[in-house]
Specification:
The protein has helices at 4-17, 27-55, 60-83, 103-138, 146-169, 181-198, 203-207, 209-223, 253-281, 287-303, 316-325, 330-345, 347-354, 358-380, 390-406, 416-422, 425-441, 467-470; strands spanning 96-98, 312-314, 478-480, 483-485, 494-495, 501-502. It has 513 residues and is mainly α. The strands form three sheets. It has a two-stranded antiparallel ribbon. A two-stranded antiparallel ribbon has the order 3-4. The protein has a two-stranded antiparallel ribbon with strand order 5-6. It is globular, with a radius of gyration of 25 Å. It is found in: Cell membrane. Belongs to the nucleobase:cation symporter-2 (NCS2) (TC 2.A.40) family. It holds the Pfam family Xan_ur_permease.
Amino acid sequence: MNQSNPSRGAAATAAVAARPEDEFLGVGRSFAYGAQHVLTMYGGIIAPPLIIGGAAGVPPAQLGLLVASCLFIGGLATILQSVGVPWFGSQLPLVQGTSFASVATLTAIVTQGGGLPAAFGSVMASAAIGLVITPFFARIIKFFPPVVTGTVITTIGLSLMPVAANWAMGNNSKLPTYGSVENIALAGFTLLVVIVLSRANIPAISRLSVLFAIVIGTVAAAIVGMANFSNVGNGPIVAFPAPFAFGFPTFTVAGVLSMTIVVLVILTETTADILAVGEIVKTPVDRKRIGNGLRADMGSSIISPIFNGFTQSAFAQNVGLVAITGVKSRFVVTAGGVILMVLGVLPVLGRVVAAIPYPVLGGAGLVLFGTVAASGIRTLAKVDYRGNMNLIIVAISIGMGMIPIAAPTFWNDFPGWFQTIFHSGISSAAITAVLLNLFFNHIKFARQKPGSSVFAEADRFIDFTEVEAFAKLKEGDRIEDGHVVDADGKPVPLRREDGELVHAPVLGSPDEH
């Protein structure tokens, strides 16, 4: 027997273990965690085809096929992104699905006489353009330092909060129960279950707390009559998405141009998601990896219309799930992709998942989306704000990202292409942060001289870098001349968590900066 094989196997195992995302948890655990990913994004992935199909006048019987098609292609795109093939796939735990950024534009295309074939053609052509320009986006990694990535990640979490709130209220403002105490109480109950299960001493329960909370919340909803499973048995059990079921794609100049703008937004958002999940997983993300991830986005978007799907992109809410569960394996997401494909060919299972009340998803979403924002805040804590304009970069960028959330009609009088870009809080914050970072930190004449800006000097009041050490102060210790001293006026040497002895400065002075 060749004795070299075990050595090669051990070497391969070590190589796999070198990246946190390459850990394989086993088939059972991978599919359990993968199901949690599917449940987290299920509402988001079925909403776009329902909205676009409804605008196109698709009969209710065929809407199920459109939804199943989007589930199927979302599964394929997820597997491509997480497993990866040469040139395609970031090999990160990113779940793919129909992009919300394309909904408004595609709705306009289908209602202007082109129908679904024009929408499919616009998606296919714009994705091909996006595939060509991905090398440019892969080169912007140097323009995404923590001040930019932290801002974008925070904005992703904050911009998703209205989605969670809308789900918690019932997701349909036309229903009489929308925003009712019962709906919000159900969301609150689900949130409470997440909190309780997260504190479980059994790791499997703690990590699957969101999944278990959704199941428990749905059972509770059924008991009180807030869940309806009567439609589960209606319709076919198996239905493979037939290629070009709604007609062959047609191409219009206006449709392709408008969707190309959307593709630029999607590339920006996917870049942010790749950087965000890389930060959460604690794995290196370089130019090549971003390029591979963007090509997976665009490649799957080109194929998507063949199976009656739309533009694909990474789902930000699943980035939050990676953060809150701590499950970093990309193969968990691959398992989720397989589940999506199964749901796409077994619409009966999709109808079971569709029966989960939206308030249940809203309670779970509050935790998930808030975790994304918290992850961004943690990244912003690493930023050096001393003697520079990073504070104003963060302030303006988050402000721009919140405009579409606080005032959805803010940009309504601007050109359509401008609205398409800036109506997304994520792309608004990303574009603003990148441009301001270039202006203040890369263009020489824009750099601030010490003492020339009130924003650059804002950090002089409190130096938080030694804040961990302050917890060890004793009675009688005080702040004197910007340092911690004991009752006798002697400097207090404080040992930080990293073991370093410091004389913690608290109130900065011009000399210290």
